[in-house]
Specification:
It contains three helices and nine strands; from the N terminus they run H-E-E-H-E-E-E-E-H-E-E-E. By secondary structure, the chain is of the alpha/beta class. 19% of the residues are buried.
Length: 203
C-alpha cells in the first residue's frame, strides 16, 4: 500500500470513525461503505473537512445486486439496491469510492446529494430512470434517458431483455402508438463454421 493511501485511510478513520460500516482498498482506490442513515452526514464531511476536501463528485451510479455472486460463489449482499459515488479531491490529489445500500428493496430511496454537489443532478436522475432508486430532496427527479411513458427500469436484473412495450408509427391514426412487445423471446446460439481439416495441420 502506498504512503498516500495509508494517509488517506488514517484521515478517513479519524474524521468519520463509527459512521463508517467498512473501509478497504480496491484497485489502488479507497472504498467506503456507509449506512443510509449516515449517508448525508458522511458525504458532507468528505467535502467540508479540510484534511479531506473532496470537492468534486465525478460519478454516481446505481447497482442491482439481485443475482450477484451466484457463479463465483460470493455472498450476495443483504440489500439489493446500492448507489456508488466517486469523489475527487483536487487539493490533495486523491480519490474515494462510497457505497450505500437503500433500506427497502421494494421502493429503494436515499437522500439526494444535489445540495452538496450539484453535479449529482443528472447522475441521480439516471439512477432513478434505470434502477428506480428515488432520491429524497432532488429538485427535479424525472426520467432522463427513457421516454416519459416508459414502464419499468431497464437496468434492473428482473427487467425483460426485450422490454414490455414497443413503439411504432400508425399511419391510420397518424401518430406514434405504444403496444405490447410482439417479438417472441428466443435464444440465439451462434454457429461456428470451420473447414474440414481445421486444426489437423498442427496435429
Amino acid at each position: 500500500m502506498s504512503a498516500r493511501l495509508e494517509t488517506l485511510k488514517t484521515t478517513l478513520q479519524a474524521r468519520l470513525g463509527s459512521r463508517l460500516i467498512g473501509m478497504d482498498e480496491i484497485l489502488r482506490e479507497v472504498r467506503l461503505e456507509v449506512s443510509a442513515a449516515n449517508y448525508l452526514e458522511v458525504m458532507q464531511a468528505l467535502r467540508d473537512t479540510p484534511e479531506l476536501a473532496f470537492a468534486g463528485l465525478m460519478d454516481l451510479c446505481g447497482v442491482d445486486y439481485a443475482t450477484y455472486g451466484g457463479e463465483k460463489g460470493e455472498n450476495r449482499p443483504a440489500r439489493r439496491f446500492a448507489v456508488v459515488t466517486h469523489l475527487l479531491s483536487i487539493q490533495h490529489n486523491w480519490r474515494v469510492r462510497v457505497r450505500v445500500f437503500a433500506e427497502d428493496d421494494g421502493a429503494p430511496r436515499l437522500p439526494s446529494l444535489f445540495h452538496i454537489w450539484n453535479s449529482a443532478n443528472w447522475y441521480e436522475r439516471e439512477a432513478f430512470d434505470m434502477f428506480g432508486i428515488f432520491f429524497d430532496g432532488h429538485p427535479d427527479l424525472r426520467r432522463i434517458l427513457t421516454d416519459y411513458g416508459f414502464v419499468g427500469h431497464p437496468f434492473r436484473k428482473d427487467f425483460p431483455v426485450c422490454g414490455h412495450l414497443e413503439m411504432r408509427y400508425d399511419p391510420e391514426q397518424k401518430r406514434v402508438v405504444y403496444q405490447p412487445v410482439s417479438i417472441e423471446p428466443r435464444e440465439i446460439t451462434p454457429r461456428i463454421r470451420r473447414e474440414a481439416n481445421w486444426g489437423r495441420e498442427h496435429a
